[in-house]
Amino acid sequence: MTNCLFKCTSESTGRSWNYNNKFLINNMTIGFRTISRLVVPAFGNLFCLARVQLSTINMAENNPDYKNATSIHEFTVKNIKGEEIKLDVYKGHVCIIVNVASQCGLTANNYKQLNELYDQYAESKGLRILAFPCNQFAGQEPGNSEEIVCFASDRKVKFDLFEKIDVNGDSAHPLWKFLKNKQGGTLGSFIKWNFTKFIVDKNGTPVERHGPNTDPLDLVKSLEKYW
Predict the structure, then answer these.
(1) Helix (H, G, I), strand (E, B), or coil: what is residue 131?
(2) For residue 225, what pLDDT band results from cuts at 50, 70 and 90?
(3) Per-residue pLDDT for 203 more than 90?
(4) pLDDT class of 62 with cuts at 50, 70, 90
(5) How far is CA 137 from CA 133, 148, 218, in A?
(6) 197, 218 in Cβ contact below 8 A?
(7) Which family does it belong to (predicted)?
(8) Entry pTM
(9) I need a surface site. Which of 57, 133, 220, 221 has the fewest CB within 10 A?
């Protein structure tokens, strides 16, 4: 269950901010405001790039080669609080793994129906939903972890929310490289847009892939095959 783990302010709920830039700017003195507008964003971008590169190295070290893996249970990810989670905690559960965004035209319907699926099947069938924020599609998930949690909390999200990641390219999380390797898509295995959904069986094997335009509730017939 996702709770609002951070203090929500009008800035975090009403505007999109780069957390690192905001932090630095707010701690600059008034006399440096003009300089900060020029220097701080550039410094922040370099810092973020270095952090992404380091994060990519850490992901590779903590996870198997996706080409040789056989189950999601072999992988480790970070939840929205930054805590490492070994996915073997999902053994025995049918899972939906989905890349989410808060500013997409598909957001409202997908969040609503994912909540409905969870409410209906989490307790009775052991369904688990793993949502991974991603900003690779038209920049529609620009917020930091604080903002993402507050967005999810406003929508009473109960399913599991993880740290923002990339799903395509060299920087893609190994878990998502594994998912794409096991369940390729139309016109290539790369993720096409927000809310691509993978169904994973109780053994951790990706068994189906559904595109962004497939509503979560339309997955029920597929899920029934794997309970």
Answers:
(1) strand
(2) very high
(3) yes
(4) confident
(5) 11, 16, 23
(6) no
(7) Belongs to the glutathione peroxidase family.
(8) 0.77
(9) 221
Number of C-beta neighbours around residue 141 at 10 A: 24
Comparing CA positions, the residue from 22, 75, 34 lying closest to residue 182 is: 75
Map out the domains of the chain as residue ranges.
Answer: 9-62, 67-224
Section 101-128 average pLDDT: 99
* Alpha-carbon 175 to chain mean position: 11
Q: Could you give phi then psi for residue 108, rounded to 5 degrees?
A: -60, -50
Nearest Cα to Cα of residue 74 among 86, 58, 92: 86
Q: Give the Cβ contact number of residue 51 at 10 Å.
A: 11
Structure tokens, 142: 């620009």
* Radius of gyration in angstroms for the set of CA atoms belonging to the chain, rounded to a whole number: 18
Q: Could you say which of 3.90.170.10, 3.40.50.150, 3.40.30.10, 3.50.50.60 is the CATH number of the domain covering 67-224?
A: 3.40.30.10
DSSP letter at 27 equals T
Which pLDDT score is estimated for 49? 53
Compute CA distances 223 → 94, 142, 216, 226, whole Å. Answer: 8, 31, 10, 6
Q: Which tokens sit at 70?
A: 């056989």
Query: Which is it for strands 76-78 and 84-86: parallel, antiparallel or unpaired?
Result: antiparallel
Q: Which residues pair with 172 in a beta bridge?
A: 166
List active site positions.
104
Distance, CA of 86 to CA of 62 (rounded, Å): 10
98: helix, strand or coil: strand
- 175: amino acid identity, one letter: L
